[in-house]
Amino acid sequence: HYIVILFVLNIPSIENVDRSDFKTCEQSGFCRRQRKYKPDRSSYEIDLNTIKIVKSGHLRCLLLDNTKSHIKFKLDIFTLEHNSLRVKINERNPIRQRYEVKHSLVGEPKLVDMNITHLDGNQIQGSFGKAARFLLYVKPFRLDLFTNDMFVISVNSKHLFNFEHYRKKPQSNKTTTDNDSEDGMWEETFKTHKDSKPYGPSSIGVDVNFINFENVYGIPEHADAFSLRSTHDGDPYRLYNVDIFEYDLQNPMALYGSVPYMLAHNEHATVGFFWMNAAEGWIDVNYNKNLFSTATKPITDNIGIPEVTTHWMFEAGIFDGFFFMGPTSRDIFKQYTTITGAAPLPPLWAIAYHQCRWNYIDEDDVRGVLNGFEQHQIPLDVIWLDIEHTNGKRYFTWDLTKFPNPEKLQNDIALYRRKLVTISDPHIKKDDAYHIYSEAKARGYFVKTKDGQDYEGSCWPGSSMWLDFFNPNISQWYSQRYLLENYKGSTENLFLWNDMNEPSVFNGPEITFPKDLVHHGGWEDREVHNLYGMLQHMSTFQGLVNRSHGHVRPFLLTRSFFAGSQRTAAVWTGDNSAQWSHLKVTVPMLLSLSVTGFGFIGADVGGFFSNPDPKLLVRWYQAAAYQPFYREHAHTDTTRREPWLFGNDNTRLIRQSIEERYTYLPYWYTLFYKQERQGIPPMLPLWANFPKDKNTFKAEDSFMIGTYR
Fold this sequence. Notes:
There is one protein chain. The longest helix has 16 residues, at about 530-545. The chain is about 20% helix and about 25% strand. It has two domains: about 25-170 and about 195-220 and about 260-290 and about 300-340, glycosyl hydrolase (family 31) (Immunoglobulin-like, Sandwich); about 350-705, Glycosidases (TIM Barrel, Alpha-Beta Barrel), CATH 3.20.20. Helix 6 packs across helix 8 (about 530-545) and helix 10 (about 615-625) runs parallel beside helix 11 (about 650-665). Strands 6, 7, 8, 9, 10, 11, 14, 16, 19 and 20 form a ten-stranded antiparallel β-sheet that branches. An eight-stranded antiparallel β-sheet has the order 2-3-4-5-21-18-17-15. It has an eight-stranded parallel β-sheet with strand order 31-30-29-28-24-23-22-32. It is α+β, with helices and mostly antiparallel strands. Strand 9 and strand 10 (about 150-155) form a beta hairpin. The radius of gyration is 26 Å and the shape is globular. This is Glucosidase II subunit alpha. One of its GO terms (cellular component) is endoplasmic reticulum.
C-alpha cells in the first residue's frame, strides 16, 4: 500500500538571510586550498610490503605520500555485513591525535569474510557480501567498487586525495618554500573574528566518483534541489551547523544540520557513500561523461560513460568512509541504518497534529486555544510552549506570573489525552541566582576558550554559557535535569524541544562557536562542531527515558542534527517563511532527509516568518498532512493563525486536512514501525518505488508515503 502526493508549484525564490554573515569557500582557508589542489597525478601510493590481513574482513597497509614530506598513513579496509565496505585513513604517527567520530555508530560494525582474489605489483582485488568487489590500485592509490559486476564508485581516480598532516609551525624568521605559512594555514580572520589555529592545517580532501550515474542525492541540510545541482559555477555544498535566519532557497549554504552521506541512483542500482566526519565540510558536485577502464573492463568504444564527480573536503578528523553497495534502494536504507541506527517507533500521539507558536503567552491563552479546537471540532494531540514560558529564558523554570500552576495545566491537558511540549535550548543564562548556571559553573561544566576560561557568548537570555556535552559526566548531569524532581513544574505529560543547538551564538563567528574553543578531551570545536546539537538531544532523550524508568517512549524535536540523530529525535527544517516557494522546497528538503536516515521530519506549517494568506495556509495544511511530522508554528511578530481565524470555508478545509491525517494514523504508525525494523523511511522519492523509471530520478514535486511492495 502506498500514497502518491503531487505538487505543481512554479515560484521564484525569495532571499532573506544576510549571506555576508557566513563564509564562502573562497573565505574558508582549507576549502580554498583543497579546491585549488589539482595535481596531474596523485602522490599517494600503497606500500605493498606492508599489506596484511589483520583478521577476517580486515585488510591493513601503509599509504605513502610520495612528496618530500614522506608522511606515512594507515589504511584499513573492512568488509561489513549487508554488502558494505569501510575504509579508514589516518596518520600513522601524528604529532597530535586526530578526532574520530564514535557517536554516529550504533555499535562496532560487524565484519564479514573478505576474499582476496588477486594480488600483484599494482593491484589487490577482493570480494565481499552479495556480489560486491573492490579493486585497490597501488600506484597511485585508487579504489574502485563494483556491485553485480557493475562499476559504480571510484575513489581518487581524479587524483584529489590530499591529507594535510599535522606539522610544527614554521619559525617566523625562516624562509619557507612549502607554503606552510600561506593561505590560512596557521591563522584566519573572518569579519572581526580571528581563528588562532594553534595546530595548523589538518584538512582532508578526496574525490568520490559515481560511475554510470546521472543523479546524486542527500548531504542535508540545504534548501535546494533533491537531485543535487552542479557546483561547477558556484560554491560547493557546505556542511556546517549554523543558525540561518529565514534561509534562502536554491543555494548550497549550510543550515542547521549536517549528514555527510550521499546516494546515487540509476535504473540498475542504488549505492551510497558516508564520510563519518563532524568537522566543517564542503562538497563539490559535477556531472560529466568520461571514458573509463579498469583491470577487469577495458575501454571498448568511444562512447562517454555518465559520471557524477564529487570532491569532499573536511577541515579536520580522519577519512572514515562507508560505501554501501546496494544494489536496491531497500538494501541501501538497511545498510545505512545498520551503521547509524533507525528512527525508533514514536508514540502514536507524536505523529498526530501539533499546535505551536512563539509564544502562547500564559495559561489562559493555552486553555483558550485548546477550547478553540474543541469548539471547532478540529483534532489536536499536542500544544507547545516556546521560550517565553520560562523565567527570563532560564530553561527548566517557569514564568510563574504567566504559568502559576504548570502541573495543573498539564494535568488538565492530559484529561483530553493531549500532551505539552516545552523548549529547552543549550545556552545557559549567566546568573548566579539561576540554579542550573551556578551548579554547572561550580562543577566546571562549560565549554572553554583556548585559554582555558569559560566561554561566554550571547543568545536569547543575553550573556550565556554552553555546557560541554562531550564530557559524559556533563551529559549525564544534564539528562538528570529532566527528572521530575529536578524539572520543577513538569509532569510525565510533558515532552521536549531542543532548539538553537547548532549552537546559535549571536555574537560568535558565523553566529556560532569560535573554532578554537576547547571541548572535553582537548578537542577543538573545529574537529567536532557538527556533533554538538546531537549530543544535547541525546542527553535530553536519555533524561526522558530515565524519567519513566524506560516505560514511556520519549518524544523530542531538534533543530540541529548529525548522522545518528534519527535514533533519538525528530527534525524540522527550521526558520522557513510564509511564501509559496518555501512550501515548494519542503518536498526536496524532506526527501533529502528521508533518504539519509531521517524519517520523522517536517516543516513549520504556514511558514515560521511572515503571515500566510488563507490560500497558502490552507494548501500548506493539505500538503503537510502527508508529511511525517505535522506541526503549525509561527514567529512572535506574526498575527495569530489558529485554524479557525480565516473564515468558515478555510476552517472547514483545514479541518478536513487534519482529519485526513487522523484517518491515516494507523497507516503512518505501521510505516514508522517498518522504518524501525527495516530502515525504510515513511516518505519516499518516486524512484524508491519505481527504480527503473528515469522520469522519476529528478522528481521533487511528488513523493510517496509507503512502498507498494
